[in-house]
Amino acid sequence: MSALKGNVMFGQSGGPSAVINSSAAGVFTEALKSDAMKNVYGAQHGIVGILHEDFIDIRKESPDEIARLRGTPASILGSCRYKLEDADKNPADYERLLEVFKKYDIRYFFYNGGNDSMDTCDKVSKYLQRAGYECRVVGVPKTIDNDLAVTDHTPGYGSAAKFVATTAMEVYLDSRVYDRGMVIVLEVMGRHAGWLTAATALASAKGFGPELIYLPEMPFHVDQMLNDVERLYTRSQNVMIAVSEGVRTPDGKIIPESIGTVEVDAFGHKQMGGTASVLAGRIGQELGCKVRGIELSLLQRSASHIASGIDIDEAFLAGQEAVRAALAGKTDVMVGFERPASGPYKTGIRLIPLEQVANLEKMVPRAWINEAGNHVLNPFIEYALPLIQGEPQQDKEDSLPRFARFKKIQAGNRDI
Amino acid sequence: MSALKGNVMFGQSGGPSAVINSSAAGVFTEALKSDAMKNVYGAQHGIVGILHEDFIDIRKESPDEIARLRGTPASILGSCRYKLEDADKNPADYERLLEVFKKYDIRYFFYNGGNDSMDTCDKVSKYLQRAGYECRVVGVPKTIDNDLAVTDHTPGYGSAAKFVATTAMEVYLDSRVYDRGMVIVLEVMGRHAGWLTAATALASAKGFGPELIYLPEMPFHVDQMLNDVERLYTRSQNVMIAVSEGVRTPDGKIIPESIGTVEVDAFGHKQMGGTASVLAGRIGQELGCKVRGIELSLLQRSASHIASGIDIDEAFLAGQEAVRAALAGKTDVMVGFERPASGPYKTGIRLIPLEQVANLEKMVPRAWINEAGNHVLNPFIEYALPLIQGEPQQDKEDSLPRFARFKKIQAGNRDI
Lengths: 416, 416
Fold this sequence. Notes:
Chain A folds into two domains: 6-155 and 305-360 and 389-401, Rossmann fold (3-Layer(aba) Sandwich); 160-301, Rossmann fold (3-Layer(aba) Sandwich). Helix content of chain A is 33%, strand content 17%. Chain A is built from 13 helices and 13 strands. In chain A, α5 (115-130) links the parallel β4 (106-113) and β5 (136-141). The model of chain A has no long low-confidence stretch (mean pLDDT 95). The interface between A and B is large, with 58 and 58 residues.
């Protein structure tokens, strides 16, 4: 396979995670080693930065700071939620992208994100092919939601799951110190898929976690939940429930919608949050008990101080493998993960055609949820536990995180 | 000084912390070494356990599990918020305590808690003295609020401050990834004192923290806060504010009271929480910008996975020193901390008469708050930074915390 010579464009998209920057470090480290790849550009705010020629020169960043990306949450380059329409409907953005790619001789395009971003990646890739412009396009997966199709799991999930499980254990202990009852409602992110909420079962498996877990995979009946809580509360005066922000009543509404309206973003996604507070209010009203709603909010996706070591390594590897695949001539694929069918966990890499991933969502299998739909079963524990192993890799300064600091030297002809 | 022979009663009280159990480990470890101290009892749910002869035999617990208390949050023995009235108003509880102390030959009483608990401690001590019953009473300080009088600082604070500062840094980064504005309102615990909210300034000092910090030491003007936010938002489109749950409007109301009523506990303390959500709503309404309220809730007091190493050590030391002081004949005192007047931080111990601590609250000095009352100054950073140093000491199992597990073998004639 010929070593296509040209420049590299890398962008980050969608909601950030504790390890998306570790993937960036993987892409940068591997690309900077390659003779075929001359300039390595980092697009600011994803595709938006490309459209506006707003990108930085990664060669000007210090290797130490690039290495510190492994312990730096959020998106070092900034993210976006910009929706690319189909090329036949609105070709302007695609024409502009092609123009920029030609102008800067971009022959490698790596895009790091979730299912929406893989869709963007796929559309761009197909457009460039049709236009006869040679550019290798490889997606780097990322999402705390773990809902990307085909891949066994997704970087970002293990770290978020570790934070969620650890926090559930700590809050469980804390909520049981008094000589009176208490119900905790822990709200976990997950618009449609319950993977992250299910991670609270890792805490339950240790004896310090929720007795009830509600995933968006199952219709959510408020009355059934109240019955579940009352039954347990009557027995032990202490109940912890974990609930996904994405659970929906049988008429398709998320919980905050039951008391008002919610905002919708560019992808048509509803603005989440508020489920714990609404449910805690209902439980307090109906059961007359002390209750506390806790929303894990942005903490669950940014807690790099308790990231999973394996997740950091795999995120980095995903970036490296994307570069290696592109250099080997692959295009229009996403780097995915697989694990051995049996025996101990071991990281395996597979390349997945983008169109198999784009816009799809992988749900927690019904067989991993208990019959009552209010907890998860052991196959989930066996699946998730290997993904949270290992300590975070983070420089500290005064016992606080020492995040990567980028100079961000502009390399494009920025028009905004 | 004679070595008074007899048994030991230890109890935990008030809101738990990440390191209150480290103090328990200090008391247990030191007491179990002493020949003068025969049985060591742990009261379940503090003073309530004593009144009901509900306490466990600490000698029956394994030394390994006692050591694991250093990495176990919440209260291993359970806590209470039981209010002892004055002895002359309601002597029944005191008579009962004396009866139990006599029955079990309790000659050493250690009570671990905040200012309310030190008041309880003081009342019990004085009653026993008047009754001519020899018993050495020593308070072990604890509170994430850091509001105990006379002592330089209080175990529990450093760990909570470290969690708050680290989390503020992570959320700061996370909230600035998009190419559009965002205001974050971070709500931190602290009923009357702003020490913990001020800890977010440790994040600001690293360049990743709130631009605005509101403490309950200053009257809170909603309009002034809106002006502050608008001014910064206009400039940079991104603002993080940290606000204490205890800030009060000039008419003395906490923020959630401005939209409804709040519960009051046995000590007359208002039920906290909800400030971030109310203020975020107001900011969104007035400025029409994207805003997210985040309440750190129980996480900030239970996050032992990111406890301060110094705090764990000092909490343990406070327990040990309480036992040593009592063995040396001291009574009616609390173990306090001091630091050198100049030069690097070094842990110093001082014993403080309980009556100097009971029911008082130490506030953040006005001179450590900026003139506008919306941030804190460098003397605070110099004060707080040494208290968050050092890594947590926590056994892990499957990369999750391995909390202490007690057998809790009943040693009293439990009547509940």
